[in-house]
Amino acid sequence: MNATRALRGFTLIELMIVVAIVGLLAAIAYPSYQAQVLKSGRADAKVELNNIAQRMQRCFTSTSTYKPDEGVCAVVDALNAAGGILSKEGHYTLTISDHDATTYTLTATVVAGTRQANDISCERFTLNQAGQRLAFSASDADTTDDCW
């Protein structure tokens, strides 16, 4: 055997440096990833609010009121039921308020226990019959510009 032949491989220090770098990159990337997941979850509220607003408009077109008698418009009945309507992804509960013959306000509120419950900056979305969109944080601050 040749005694001058060098052994090749990684030292423990080199491996520890690589692990530290990977850990640092993960620590930086994970919060950004979480923020993107929450941001994408907001689409559940927005899509459902717009869908229900369209259904409300169809009811208004056929009955000339946003508040028809019970049994005439299924979406109004569902919104007035206890608990409102659960969004397709299950992250938001949709309810109606300020509801009369010519006005309404739809509200999407985050469901406790879902991943969106961590989105305290965009906890509640609203949409009214005039198309006005608002968003509110957990502390009721207006966060429309950041959330919509």
Structure notes:
The protein has helices at residues 12-63, 74-80, 144-147, and strands at 85-86, 92-97, 105-110, 124-128, 133-136. The chain has 148 residues and is α+β, with helices and mostly antiparallel strands. It has one domain (12-147). The model has no long low-confidence stretch (mean pLDDT 92). The chain crosses the membrane at residues 12-33. Keywords: Membrane, Transmembrane, Transmembrane helix. This is Prepilin-type cleavage/methylation domain-containing protein. InterPro entries: N_methyl_site, PilE-like, Pilin-like.
List the helices and strands and how they pair.
Blueprint: H1 12-63, H2 74-80, E1 85-86, E2 92-97, E3 105-110, E4 124-128, E5 133-136, H3 144-147
Question: Gist?
Answer:
This protein is of the alpha+beta class. It has helices spanning 12-63, 74-80, 144-147, and strands at residues 85-86, 92-97, 105-110, 124-128, 133-136. It has one domain (12-147).
* N-to-C CA distance: 72 Å
Q: What is the count of DSSP helices, taking H or I runs of 4+ residues? A: 3
Largest sheet: 5 strands, antiparallel
Rg measurement, Å:
25 Å
